[in-house]
Amino acid sequence: MRVDECDPRKCTCLKMKRFGYAKVISRARWLPRGVVYLHPNAKKLIGPDDRKIVEKIGISALDCSWANIEKHSRIPKRVRGRVLPFLIAANPVHFGTPEQLSTLEAIAAALYILDYVEESLSLLSLYKWGRNFIKVNYELLEKYRSARSREEIRLLSERAAGRS
Prior knowledge:
Elements: H1 12-18, E1 36-38, H2 50-56, E2 59-61, E3 80-82, H3 103-113, H4 117-124, H5 130-146, H6 150-161
Parallel strand pairs: 1-2, 1-3
Helix pairs in contact: 3-4, 3-5
């Protein structure tokens, strides 16, 4: 879901649309019922049991400026709000910044964690810096991907963020 706040030339969401990887919508009511919706304020981590949902219904993400994230904190009831575990951005705007991923990085990370590795790499190949996201986060992504539960991912994420 895009709220039209970023520079269209740098918007990873619009590039995903241009290359046929995404459908862009601007209203929450247009999200498919039950879709996995990546949102930084979601209460529930993405986990292995989301794979079946993504396969059947799909995955969506909030695409807005990090400066205005609080304006968009409401997660529609009709979707499954999910947050990603600790990861580090590799995009040019937020390179090296923890938990400030571009929309493309967020979708690619979720796909990787849910064991759609080839799809994730394909998506990241849209940008020269895309593969750097995997290089920077490879160990974490592999640990999250092999985790058996949301709880295991939470523990790994907290340890990676230095919160344990």
